[in-house]
Amino acid sequence: MYFHFRMAFMATALSLASVAIAAEPSAADTISVEQIIAPLPASTPQVWTFSDCLNWAIENNTEVRRSMLNVLSARQDVLSAKDAWLPTVSFSTNQNFTNYPGNEQGRDHNAYGSAYNIGASWTAWDGNVRKYASESAKLIEQQRALAGDDAIVTLKLGILDAYLNIMYSEEAVKIAEQTLEVSTAQAERAKRLAESGRTSRVDYAQIESQRAQDAYNLTVARNNFESAKLTLKKILTLGIDYDLNVAEVNFPDEEVLAQLPAATEVYNLAADWLPQFKSNEISKSIYSNDIKIAKAGRLPSVSVQGALASGYSSGSSRNWAATMGRNFNENIGLTLSVPIFDGNSTKRAVAKARLAELDYDLTQRDLMDNLSQTIENLYINAANAQARYTAGVAQLDAVQLSSDLVIRQFELGYVNPLEFLTAHNNLLNARLELLQSKYMAILASKTISFYATQEISLN
Questions:
Q1: How far is CA 422 from each of CA 122, 206, 393, rounded to the nearest angstrom?
Q2: Using one digit for the tens of pLDDT, what is the confidence trace for 411-434?
Q3: DSSP state at residue 99
Q4: What's the per-residue H, E or C state across 135-184?
Q5: How far apart are CA 381 and CA 302, in angstroms?
Q6: What's the whole-model pTM score?
Q7: Distance from C-alpha of 3 to C-alpha of 310, rounded to nearest angstrom
Q8: What gap in Å lies between CA 72 and CA 270, rounded to an integer?
Q9: Beta bridge partners of 155
Q10: d(CA 427, CA 179)
């Protein structure tokens, strides 16, 4: 009873000597393993709005779930860093049997001995290594959470591009269908004229060839449409057989040609909230802790040890229990370790930590340059697309009028098939170019708005 009491007392004393660290809320506190391994919901929207796509992807995308797993893993590192403040307690025993071939008075041929030891150790001072390691572990956990935020940023921009590409491809299919209807009607008319002898077979063949080309263009447009849907389905982690239908969004000319905020303003706003910039700022603090940890190699360390021990050896007149009680002992000690020379390992560690700290400046410069180029490219694309759209509207009106006149003249026999086909293709190209510039302008302006406001919407 006395033995167990003393053992419990020593373990408690060492535990109370350790530094208590209060639990702090972290990113991992709101994440559960069930969220990560949860299957996809059985029900899906009939028609996917852009908001539906965003919400679904954030909850179910594989990369987002993997980032949540990384946060949980970092949380375990935080707990491990806190556990370093706790003492270590261990039990050891030794059992031995000794054989003495020669006889000696008072000694048996065979001797049995045993030893039992319960030891505890706690580091009282280590140059604040545990403190800095704990701080760095918490910072790394924040970085993992920011990496998840960065994955969501990439995901949102990817969905925006894929969603707009679907809408563009769908409208391109409609243009191809309308173009094929016109060329089919003209081919049928040319066939009747050729059969009646009012036009040559060569003219009919040219028009029929254009109808076949328009039919092929329609097939290509439909394939592009399906490919665009497949891209979005992959982002949303939907099955290959899933029939994805997206909601239509109307973009009036005012929205296509909307004035953009100043590029420098967008750049400054984006640099304030983008997760990569915040993560790099955290890296600066981690590098600082690494230097402090490396410098701690020059400082002394203090540790406390304690043990409860007893042993037994055969040959005594006392029985095992009595011998164990008589041999029971307890000890506590203090160890001071002062580094004198470590082969320059601490010096090299500090130098490497200082060099690593320089990575912050290099990474910051890269982030700023990349963001600057991204914003600049977006503004160039937006300006070009808006200019093309403005010119395209006027051009389409002119080409449409010209095409209507050529078709009428062709029906009256005043122009040859080559002029008719040229007008036909000019109209098709003008419609497709206007459509392309429209969605390029929308994509650029929506992306710029996202960098400025952190919000992304097509409504």
A1: 89, 11, 19
A2: 777 777 888 888 889 999 999 999
A3: E
A4: HHHHHHHHHHHHHHHHHHHHHHHHHHHHHHHHHHHHHHHHHHHHHHHHHH
A5: 64
A6: 0.83
A7: 10
A8: 28
A9: none
A10: 9
